[in-house]
Design brief:
globular; 106 residues; 41% helix; 4 helices
Length: 106
Amino acid sequence: VMARLLERVGYAVEGYASGDEAIARLDVKGEYALLLIDVVMPGSSGVETVRSLGALGIDAPMLLMSGRPNPGSDAGGADGFSGKPFTMDSLDQALARLRASRSSSG
């Protein structure tokens, strides 16, 4: 559902069934506008996935998402958090906050 929503508004989307698959397949040299990572996934959790991707040198903005409460300070270095379910408008707002945060810090 999320992939179709993002594709409909012009994003190119790569989807992975687990954090472990994302860790294995994302290219450290790739240029990613955003990585949306669910907190609860098969294999590595979203927080573990964020930590692993950062350790590999993936420098894309990472937004954790979950139907559970925000993991707060234990977000593994993610740039932001969005609760589920969300609308395209609320996702756009989260992305705008993330872009503003990254541009002001770097």
